[in-house]
């Protein structure tokens, strides 16, 4: 038995020793990644450091970061992303709870219908809202649609499945024995929900919230299509500086700030997903 155990532990070690010899296989995808992503990103960084006189410096960064236009766009971007994330967490959690724990005919169909939203482009949601809430739509609430609240409602509608799907997966892993024991001890449904169900799903809900906020901060199609008055987000500001006024250095500075925000949120999302997977492994 000892010999078999040593052989079993030695085999993976031998395989790991052979892997470095095949490292050259990673070279083509790395080169493709550097060519299609790294090189354009370097160009954006260099362009953001180019002054009006053609020299390199931080004057463009200082002008952009110190402008009221940038601060207003950054504030509106963060506010819309936070509002959309909060709405998606509430709505997505509620829908996931209903589908997972309330037996009714058509639960799977409803889940699949919500999932189909993931396949739609975001501007399609804005177009549908135009037909419903637009000036010539069914409800004719044009003033509401072309406001920050209209954008917020459209983003919540579009991004709710990104919270609902991981919540459904987490609720599916909750042990029914725990809920039965809690109920047998006299715990009411609300207490079971707060103390048994939601703590188990908290990592999944947090990761879904981070992913939703990441996507909402970079949302462009909904904001552009609705054309809400006095609503300029960072992606819209990049579009305005780069395409409308052809001020490429300022556009690159704003784009780099948006990239930093996105990378920070993505890092948080990765940590939360790793934590959820480790918790699942520990429970198993």
TrEMBL record:
Keyword field contains Transport: yes
All residue ranges annotated as the ABC transmembrane type-1 domain in the record: 74-269
Residues passing through the membrane, by range: 24-46, 78-101, 113-132, 138-159, 201-228, 248-269
GO cellular component: plasma membrane
Major subcellular site: membrane
InterPro entries (alphabetical): MetI-like, MetI-like_sf
Gene Ontology biological-process annotations: transmembrane transport
UniProt key word Cell membrane: yes
Swiss-Prot/TrEMBL keywords: Cell inner membrane, Cell membrane, Membrane, Transmembrane, Transmembrane helix, Transport
One Pfam family matching this protein: BPD_transp_1
Domain of life per record: Bacteria
Localization per record: Cell inner membrane; Cell membrane
Matches recorded under CDD domains: TM_PBP2
PROSITE patterns: ABC_TM1 (PS50928)
Membrane topology: Multi-pass membrane protein
Family: Belongs to the binding-protein-dependent transport system permease family.
PANTHER family documented for this protein: INNER MEMBRANE ABC TRANSPORTER PERMEASE PROTEIN YDCV (PTHR43357)
Name of the protein this chain belongs to: 2-aminoethylphosphonate transport system permease PhnU
């Amino acid at each position: 038995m000892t010999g078999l155990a040593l052989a079993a532990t030695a085999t993976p070690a031998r395989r790991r020793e052979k892997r470095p010899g095949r490292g050259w296989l990673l070279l083509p995808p790395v080169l493709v990644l550097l060519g299609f992503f790294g090189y354009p990103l370097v160009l954006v960084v260099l362009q953001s450091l180019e002054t009006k006189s053609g020299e390199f410096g931080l004057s463009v960064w200082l002008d952009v970061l110190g402008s009221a236009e940038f601060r207003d766009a950054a504030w509106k971007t963060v506010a819309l992303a936070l509002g959309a994330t909060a709405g998606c967490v509430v709505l997505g959690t509620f829908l996931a709870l209903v589908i997972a724990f309330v037996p009714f005919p058509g639960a799977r169909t409803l889940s699949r219908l919500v999932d189909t939203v993931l396949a739609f482009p975001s501007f399609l949601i804005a177009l549908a809202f135009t037909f419903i809430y637009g000036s010539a739509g069914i409800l004719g609430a044009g003033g509401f649609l072309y406001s920050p609240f209209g954008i917020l409602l459209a983003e919540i509608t579009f991004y709710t499945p990104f919270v609902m799907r991981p919540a459904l997966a987490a609720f599916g892993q909750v042990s029914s024995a725990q809920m039965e024991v809690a109920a047998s001890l006299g715990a009411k449904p609300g207490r079971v929900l707060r103390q048994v169900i939601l703590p188990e799903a908290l990592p999944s809900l947090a990761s879904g919230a981070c992913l939703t906020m990441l996507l909402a901060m970079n949302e462009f199609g909904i904001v552009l299509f609705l054309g809400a008055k006095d609503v300029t987000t960072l992606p819209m500001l990049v579009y305005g500086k780069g395409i409308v006024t052809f001020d490429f250095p300022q556009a690159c500075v704003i784009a780099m700030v948006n990239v930093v925000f996105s990378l920070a949120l993505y890092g948080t999302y990765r940590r939360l997903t790793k934590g959820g997977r480790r918790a699942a492994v520990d429970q198993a």
